[in-house]
Amino acid sequence: PPASTSFFTKPDLYSVQEFKAFIKVDIHEFSDWISRLVPRSVHDFKPLIVLLKAALRSVSQKDLHFFLKKVKILEGGLKEEQRRSAELELQLQEKQMELKELQELMEAQRTTEYAAKGVKALTNLRAKKSDEKMLMLNQEEAKKGLQHSLRHALTQLTSAQTELEQLRGDLKSK
Prior knowledge:
By secondary structure, this protein is mostly helical. The chain is 84% helix and 0% strand. The protein is built from three helices and no strands. The chain is rod-shaped and about 190 Å long.
């Protein structure tokens, strides 16, 4: 039994004020005390019933108030979690859109790089073909120049032979 209450020192005091003061002490002690409470005589029944009704009303009101408060807190928490969940869902959608955009950019970059490699290879190929053409043209020009030089040299050689034969003929005739 709770030692801090007057119920044990003065069992004839069953006022509501004392009960309220008692109930604030310790609910578990009060519960134990109520379960062992026994009326001493017939005249104790009415005060005991009044006490039990007040105790029951007070406990049920406190429990009801407690649970209603807890339900409100839980509802508030649930609404907060729903709001937060909606925000996270929105953030997730935004991140998915960003990811999709990044993937598209990466694909475009890969395509651009592939095209750039193709253009570079084509440019290199054209340069190589151009170099080959230039080399061929240079070879042809060199060949033509050589042929021209040979023709010119042949012409000079022919004219030199003709002069040599004329000189020989002149020498023989003299």
